[in-house]
Amino acid sequence: MPEERTQHSEDSKGRTGPEDLRGSVATFDRVEEGATAIATLSTKNHEVFESRVRDRSHVCLACGQASVHRFLYRKNGCDILRCEQCGLGRAETMGFDPESYYTSDYFSGERPDGYADYIGTENILRREFAGTVEFIRKFRASGRLLDVGCAYGFFLHEAKRFFDVSGIELAEDAAEHCRRSGLNVFTGQADETLLGRLGTTDVIVLLDVIEHLPSPRDTIALLVNHLDHGGIIVITTGDFGSLYSRVAGAHWRLMTPPQHLWFFSQASMQAMATSLGLEVEHLDHPWKVVPLSLISFQLTRMSGLRPKRIAISNRLGLPVNLFDAMRVVLRKPSR
Ligand SMILES: [Zn+2]
Hints:
Elements: H1 2-13, H2 18-33, H3 35-38, H4 43-53, E1 56-59, E2 66-75, E3 78-83, E4 89-92, H5 98-101, H6 104-107, H7 122-137, E5 143-148, H8 154-159, E6 163-169, H9 172-180, E7 185-187, H10 192-198, E8 201-207, H11 216-225, E9 227-238, H12 243-248, E10 262-263, H13 266-275, E11 279-284, E12 288-291, H14 292-302, E13 317-320, E14 325-331
Parallel strand pairs: 5-6, 5-8, 6-7, 8-9
Antiparallel strand pairs: 1-2, 2-3, 3-4, 4-10, 9-14, 11-14, 12-13
Helix pairs in contact: 1-2
The structure holds zinc ion (ZN).
């Protein structure tokens, strides 16, 4: 059957690079020549063709290769592409302005891709963060700690029992909330000026932050300069190579561009760390106690309804592990 043959040749070609892209276009042209053959162009073939021509070449910020970035799908008006070398996902977006985006609305359920009620779930979040502090202390028991994207300072309050803490936060309201509670928190981006004022540190944490940064590689490189030798960077983010992410595709719970711009896999995290002179000391997919309100918020969003704020369930949390989020400890080698 001609249809099967066309399908087969496209499938067997599509996975190895730009030369095959040309092959698939040629197949398409040939099929289009004959009026009867047009009928053999199934919707699936057409989609495969459409997505091939949207592949593009980028220098990958994780693996550093100029590589084919496979077009996967569109979500919220953004093209989602994946580096063929290391698996890093990227959202291509136009004119996204983080400074006007991360306001108090983001943390209070006013944005469908934000938090349901961040402040209302403080108790659960702090219990969770206390566990994160315990985890970090296995790698570094004390010293100076910097939280990049510290939100309302819940993690910093847990960490300050063992560390000399400071934070950086883009959302003015959240940073102000931190300062009122006695924390040393700066408003702004983690840039040279701000980091210069903070000096060097022993531990830097980015908890569910790296996927939001306009250029995570540049930011991490800057942070490495302000990290003492032997110090660690702790990152939590989604795992784009996880089974759940692969199966759910555009419907993955963390596929929320333009809020999330980068989708790391284990390989892409490893590649970026190595190229910045860091060692991957630990990588796992931890269990997490999640507020019931956030679970119902995300489920409602995935069902396509507009999420509403829910008064109940802020105090309740459930241990959850979808194995689609990773926790990484990167170490700057001692001199
Ligand atoms: Zn790559």
